[in-house]
């Protein structure tokens, strides 16, 4: 019963099989091989963006930081939410890769509010040369708290950004979960809404470690490639990144895996509704449940794994547990978790 | 007949098998799983360094840059050769990760000369606060030109560095090839000779993409981990790096693969001796051969792949070809290459 | 009637005289001259810190950024208020000089609350390698909103910082105004309260452009000097910085100038009390006054200069004016400003 | 008898007078005052560049580093000579301000050779994404070894740079000495020859500390201003930089001071010709003289001050002394130096 993270489970078997298939013969390095070229084409097709610049990296932090650094000058500030992964969980990587840009935390929750964004942007860049200059807007779909941005909110945020001439970055570590939940196409979720660069995450969705970075303005391609190399993120044996992504795209595997993960989370939320306060209705693969102390103790005793987001692991009162499902979360684990919780 | 690079060939099948085996169940992320712990222990055993800090990253540029950044202050300069990978082939990654340190090119060839190093160090750091301060010494074993540092040279270089209080970094992208060629133990090649941090490369020796970074002073461990995360180089699904390295270490596979690669290069050199001027006797897996124009044309016509290091791909006069062998280079390719060359 | 800033007025005549006196003969550069040495000694005496490392730079941004960079690792975050000059008015200089550290804005006003600081520190550094690490605490005395930290608050903040092992930086761009207002000694205001590095500002208090940076731990001296040089902030003709500071220290000129500035501000506040809402009782040289629209219009018509901090320069409703006095603010300007305001 | 550096002597009295004159009344800060505007106009006039972006900073390291950073991407390399101040004497400031660019040392002496530059440029940027990309060319007029670039050499170097699409930076710490020696106009020395950004140094020529940075492409203005602020190099009381430069420009003072300095150096060289080997004929204000040991001892005994560039201060054999004259070097010091040397 491991609900700690979508990085705890295994890769999908077909990904390993794809690695094995790719592991044959001599091919050019650094992404110049046929498989890598094919994968880039497939992503362009998927995003209905024939001119987009598409590249692969191995970690989400690299994807976000390199994408932002390509859009953001060192004197600027990036607008994001207080919960943003780029703020909370990247150990200053965005600051490092941008050469010292700032992050401005737009007040509010994990789903950025267009009006709050407008106010935040208006609050920066008003001091001439003295203050940080306005830079990119960064949003996370689905958010770090498991919530979805409706497409109209994405469009509204992009409209605000554009009205100030600012580019928009979409952290899509859980892009697939969002696409399934929204029943939206990658194009609708990104460039059609006004997004300038999107991260199409694979790692959390069943790969070993691959994220695609997609610039809808191909003029950024060369700079991104240089920054990737300078960051030590250009794989010499690139085919092994490409093979993973290729498997991910094959027959819509990425949607299938995300659909399973989302369904598990929905089942979990439904089952817990009587015994725990679940914040909102999860539409992705992550939920936060307030567990009474007794339920928490019982679950731990049964070996359930999850992060305590609020409250004390050992102590009194309820805890808020973050519960993340993946494609490999067994339905039986979900059932057992619910059963233990309910019996408490 | 692909002799372009040791990143052109496939991974060893047992590495893919190890990935498949590791692909089971839920485990902690970010290197806290049992397999990752075991692999760190195995590397400590291999290096006879029970206290060493050992971490894995996925690329050689990351390994070198993060290791150097942990040793080098931004106001310092790194001493390396003009051929060093960190100077020639990392797109300013060392400068980036160190926060703007300089590289001082020690005059001479690819095998750094201890007397030249002493002179170079004496030439820096003499201007008080005005000039770059003296920083780490970085050497590559085997070098980017395919040459070996005899252990006594490594010791002599470390002695020079130590006499100035400077640490030593060893870029071991081809560590395995060197270990086989020198018939030396990892401990002899590194900390017993005075090396402070070593990169034990796996990527060029049959893995998909894994390098171990070993600090013999464990006090550097935490800083390195923070820098790795900040650089986007901490894998969430760390087990897939560990599994590769585990396979590499199993039954001395790493030595076996390197021995094969070295043997192929030796055969190639021997076979070419009548028709091309091979610079030195290769003891690793890389050689540079001056091919007469006719030989070059014939080889290309037959589909031979290699980099032209000097001379013109299309033009007149001889070319110097870089020829790299890997564990997967077929003996038949070597024989055919020689045959074609000889028949020209 | 210029109340825009303490950088708008002239330097004290004795400072120009000191420059003229220093402008004689050949002396060593880069701060190795007798006058520079003497000034460093005088500052050590003033701060009752015989071992302190003392250096001069020409701007406040340089002083703050270099001081923080010497205390702060790139993976850390600096704790400051949302109003802090280092956050609002230095165009990402702290981020630049630290190599990409973050600033954490401690909620609350311009006078940091010790309890809020504790909560903020507890909220960072809890994510292991993933989040920003805890770094220095930075406070401004007097604040950017013209308020004073009582010494017991400084001590309480330092105690909080120390309880986490964190160093404390004091931005003293208006140190002199604070010293006069608190009637406190420089030692009491800094190291006796637990401050690790203080900026003793001269620019806003009647010099052309000089700030002293004082590290009470002399072990930081060399690193600071290297960072200063690397930042382009080491003056070759250092005597001209030293001469200004020497004049500042002569016969307590610095206190005298600040006392005048503070007195002007107090007079201004008292005089405005009937016609404007002055936020708090100013004890330094800066106040914020809410001016009814009619008063604002009348003052502008009379040529009064000040920044509109809140409200619209041209529009409706009241404006909040920032009013800054300096040593050179004529008492007659204060009187006239009050008179115009009152007559409205 | 102080020949150590052009930063050892005093400022010209008229500069102090200008400071005193400027020290009157309240004016806008940060360079928005009338005097600062006038000075920028005067420099544009002097350089016959009505559209140029002109800004002032206080140190040469700041001027060079900020100018280069505005022209150079972090993945690029700057081409300069091994003697360049930016390489030897700025403690990695160019690397810092550019965000980690590299410096490529063009082989040869202190006067860069156009053919050597071409070869150096051709040698970089040939490795695609792997190596440093080609960046600006930086030359120093007059050089750190006291030599002049003939205008045709500047033009030839700029032509080489332009043929690769690279911009040219001119470090003019001793621009005035060069202008006098070449009898050339600032325009001829810079943009007419193809220079993109020039530093017009005042510090070494009789100011307290001011350098003008002139971008002939005004599109760089805003970025430079932001970088200057971020670097802590924007003076709040800007008028005191402007006043110095204003005095410098008044009635061609800058030329007059440089002419005196150059004449002193010429006299010194002529007088030493019998007793020391002077390298080349100095045309600027700096010479290098090989002094026999006895002469060196005798000069030191008489209190002569200079840097020993080669050889041992205390030891055997000759020493190479660097001898720098300034506008304030007394003719009597020159005569006495020669007399002592000759009498040895």
TrEMBL record, chains A, B, C, D:
<dbReference type="Pfam" id="PF01212">
    <property type="entry name" value="Beta_elim_lyase"/>
</dbReference>
<comment type="subunit">
    <text>Homotetramer.</text>
</comment>
<dbReference type="InterPro" id="IPR015422">
    <property type="entry name" value="PyrdxlP-dep_Trfase_small"/>
</dbReference>
<dbReference type="GO" id="GO:0006520">
    <property type="term" value="P:amino acid metabolic process"/>
</dbReference>
<feature type="domain" description="Aromatic amino acid beta-eliminating lyase/threonine aldolase">
    <location>
        <begin position="3"/>
        <end position="278"/>
    </location>
</feature>
<comment type="similarity">
    <text>Belongs to the threonine aldolase family.</text>
</comment>
<dbReference type="InterPro" id="IPR015424">
    <property type="entry name" value="PyrdxlP-dep_Trfase"/>
</dbReference>
<dbReference type="InterPro" id="IPR001597">
    <property type="entry name" value="ArAA_b-elim_lyase/Thr_aldolase"/>
</dbReference>
<keyword id="KW-0663">Pyridoxal phosphate</keyword>
<protein>
    <submittedName>
        <fullName>L-threonine aldolase</fullName>
    </submittedName>
</protein>
<dbReference type="GO" id="GO:0016829">
    <property type="term" value="F:lyase activity"/>
</dbReference>
<dbReference type="InterPro" id="IPR015421">
    <property type="entry name" value="PyrdxlP-dep_Trfase_major"/>
</dbReference>
């Amino acid at each position: 019963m491991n609900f700690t993270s979508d990085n705890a489970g295994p890769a999908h078997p077909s990904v390993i099989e794809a690695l094995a298939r790719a592991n044959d013969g001599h091919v050019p390095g650094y992404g110049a091989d046929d498989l890598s070229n094919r994968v880039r084409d497939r992503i362009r097709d998927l995003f209905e963006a024939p001119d987009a610049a598409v590249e692969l990296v191995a970690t989400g932090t690299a994807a976000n930081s390199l994408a932002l650094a390509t859009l953001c000058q060192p004197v600027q500030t990036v607008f994001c939410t207080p919960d943003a992964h780029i703020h909370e969980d990247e150990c200053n990587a965005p600051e490092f890769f941008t050469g010292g840009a700032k992050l401005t935390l737009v007040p509010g929750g994990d789903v950025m509010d267009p009006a709050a964004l407008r106010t935040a942007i208006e609050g920066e860049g008003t001091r001439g040369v003295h203050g940080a200059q306005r830079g990119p807007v960064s949003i996370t779909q689905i958010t770090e708290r498991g919530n979805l941005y409706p497409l109209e909110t994405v469009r509204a945020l992009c409209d605000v950004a554009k009205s100030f001439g600012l580019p928009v970055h979409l952290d899509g570590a859980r892009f697939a979960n969002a696409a399934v939940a929204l029943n939206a196409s990658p194009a609708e979720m990104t460039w059609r809404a006004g997004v300038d660069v999107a991260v199409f995450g694979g790692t959390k969705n069943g790969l070993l470690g691959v994220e695609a970075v997609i610039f809808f303005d191909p003029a950024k391609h060369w700079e991104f490639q240089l920054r990737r190399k300078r960051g030590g993120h250009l794989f010499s044996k690139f085919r092994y990144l490409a093979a993973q992504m290729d498997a991910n795209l094959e027959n819509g595997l990425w949607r299938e895996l995300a659909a399973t993960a989302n369904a598990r989370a929905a089942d979990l939320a439904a089952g817990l509704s009587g015994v725990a306060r679940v914040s909102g209705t999860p539409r992705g693969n992550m939920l936060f449940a307030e567990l009474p102390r007794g339920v928490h103790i019982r679950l731990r005793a049964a070996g359930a794994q999850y992060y305590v987001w609020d409250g004390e692991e050992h102590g009194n009162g309820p805890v808020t547990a973050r519960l993340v499902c993946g494609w490999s979360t067994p339905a039986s684990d979900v059932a057992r978790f619910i059963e233990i919780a309910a019996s408490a």
